[in-house]
Structure formats: C-alpha cells, structure tokens
Amino acid sequence: MKLGLVTYLWGKDMKLRELLTTCEAAGIQGVELRTEHAHGVEPTLSKSERKEVRSLFADSPVELVGYGSNAQYHENDEKKLNENIELTKRYIELMHDCGGTGVKVKPNGFPKGVEKTKTIEQIGEALNLVAAYGEGYGQQIRVEVHGRGTSELPVIRDIFKVADHPNAKICWNSNDVDLSGDGLEANFAMVHARFGDTVHIRELNEGSYPYPKLMNLLTGIGYSGWILLEARTNPQDKLQALIEQRKIFEGMTGG
C-alpha cells in the first residue's frame, strides 16, 4: 500500500509545483488532484497546458493518482444527470492527457420523494456509461462511498449490483457509518471485491475510526493500491503534518 494525498484542505491552496515539492519533502508518494483548487488542473486546460502538467509529474517522484471530481449521478433531474455524465467524460480526457489513472465520482444522497431503488438503479446505470468511456482512455472510475444514505455499505453493494462494468470501482471512504450494522468487518467483506486503486482516510491520529483494524483488513485481502489522506483539520505547517501522518501510516503498515 502506498500513501498519497487528496488535495482537499491540506493541498487546496498550493500551486502545482509547491504541492509536488511539499509531497516529495514529506515522503508522500502520490496525489489525487481535487477540482476547484489552487493547482488549477481543470478541463479548461489547453493541450499544451496539459502537457506541462504531465511533464511536472514526470520530473517528480510524486505520482498523479487521479482526479477528485464532484460529478454525481443521484439527482432526480435528467438534465443535471446528463450534465454530470458529460462532465465526467471531460475529466476522464483531462486525466488521460495529464498522466493520471482514474477519476473519482460519487453518489451524494437520496432525492426526496424518489424511491431509493430507482435512484440506486440510476446511479448504477450512469456508472456503467462513464466506466465504459473511461476504459477507452485507460481511466478507472472510482466511486467514493459518499452521501447521506448512499454512504451506507449495503446501498453501495446494491449500486454495484447494477454497476457491473469492471472499470467501475469502489473507493472506500472511512466513514463512521462503516461501523454500523454488523460492524466494520462485515461491511468491508460486503464490498471489497469491487475495490479499485484508491482508499480515502482521514488523519490517522484524530477521531475514533479504527484505522489499525482497517489496515489489517486491507492487508488481509492483499490490497496494493493507494491510501489517500483526505484531511479534515487545518494545521499551519502542512509539511510537518504530512510527515507526521506518513510516520503513523508506516507504523501501522510496517512500511
């Protein structure tokens, strides 16, 4: 398993060069670039600007893991749904050009007044469409376990019964709801067969989430993807905070 950074909060105000040098200095091996952050990697980039992004990563030991988009497919509005599908395609093309390997998308809750089964089916069908498109560009579709109601692991399981395209993958998100029902082990077992190349975590020394147990579960299935830090706090010294998290991660995983 490799430790990387989601640029949410800790990297959001860094230009791309600063982000890469900070991650390198901290021993962080990869980044998932989030949309609408200071590094400015967006679908509006020209071909030459995309080549520059690819070149910056090629010259750095830090890998471009992929893109953290806000594309979502749960809304009860066909126009918005189609706009999100088309936006996902633009993100897929962007990551292909910049040298990434995937795009993070998400469900974001259940619309009021709509049968949950209908929303689950809609999300799954949309994922099949973008997964097929992503496959043509070598980009994995990484579905963040996200949203009120939709972050429950039985719901994710049911979404992926519909989203049967092999390029649609689950991005475990380390939510408190992971511990509900029959507990972490049972919820993990329910969905891990569809895991992709990314897992999101929060700070390993904050809150009560059982990260050592999660790392043991991931080790137990032979997981060899990215563990991406999606921080919630806002320390003044981001470099030292990243170094601290890397050391804790290494202690948990024997890295």
What can you see in these coordinates?
With 255 residues, this protein is of the alpha/beta class. The chain has a single domain, classed as Divalent-metal-dependent TIM barrel enzymes (TIM Barrel), CATH 3.20.20.150. It is built from 8 helices and 8 strands; from the N terminus they run βαβαβαβαβαβαβαβα. The protein has an 8-stranded parallel β-barrel. α1 packs across α8 (238-253), α4 packs across α5 (153-162) and α5 (153-162) packs parallel to α6. The protein is globular, with a radius of gyration of 18 Å.
User: Can you count the beta strands?
Assistant: 8
Low-confidence stretches: none
Helix content: 40-55%
CATH class: Alpha Beta
Number of helices in the DSSP assignment? 8
Please give the domain count. Answer: 1
Strand order of the largest sheet: 1-2-3-4-5-6-7-8
Oligomerization state of this entry? single chain
Q: Which structural class do you get from the secondary structure elements?
A: alpha/beta
The N- to C-terminal Cα distance equals: 8 Å
Give me the CATH fold name. TIM Barrel
Query: Outline, from the CA principal axes?
Result: globular
In what range is the share of β-strand residues?
Answer: 15-25%
CATH homologous superfamily heading: Divalent-metal-dependent TIM barrel enzymes
Detail the topology: elements first, then pairings:
Layout lengths: L1 E5 L9 H11 L3 E5 L12 H12 L4 E10 L5 H21 L3 E5 L9 H20 L4 E5 L8 H10 L5 E5 L11 H8 L3 E7 L9 H10 L5 E4 L8 H16 L2
Would you summarize the structure shown here?
This protein has 255 residues and is an alpha/beta fold. It has helices at residues 16-26, 47-58, 78-98, 116-135, 153-162, 184-191, 211-220, 238-253, and strands at 2-6, 30-34, 63-72, 102-106, 140-144, 168-172, 195-201, 226-229. It has a single domain, classed as Divalent-metal-dependent TIM barrel enzymes (TIM Barrel, Alpha-Beta Barrel).
